[in-house]
Design goal:
Blueprint (H helix, E strand, L loop, with lengths): L2 E5 L2 E4 L3 E6 H4 L3 H12 L3 E4 L6 E7 L2 E7 L3 H9 L2
Parallel strand pairs: 4-6
Antiparallel strand pairs: 1-2, 3-5, 5-6
Length: 84
């Protein structure tokens, strides 16, 4: 089992990651903003950013979905995931 560190002590199992998304680019879409809002209303958002978040990671494990905000950019998270 391998884990990816997202910041602020938050780690997720790599097999639970559905996608890693750039917050600036994807939040321009009405559909993405709606998805983010729905996740927040459902209590599925976790903040692993100490500063302004740059990305978000969608995970699903143990029958639950979560959306984790990270201050790391997508390139950094991708590099970390490839090193696993």
């Amino acid at each position: 089992m391998r884990y990816l560190h997202l910041g602020k002590g938050k780690v997720v199992r790599d097999d639970e990651i559905i996608g890693i998304f750039d917050l600036d680019i994807t939040s321009q879409s009405r559909l993405t903003r709606s998805f983010l809002s729905a996740c927040e209303k459902a209590g599925e958002v976790e903040n692993a950013a100490e500063d302004i978040p740059k990305s978000f990671v969608v995970c699903e494990g143990r029958g639950q979905r979560s959306l984790i905000l990270s201050q790391m950019n997508t390139a950094t998270l991708l590099k970390r995931s490839n090193e696993l």
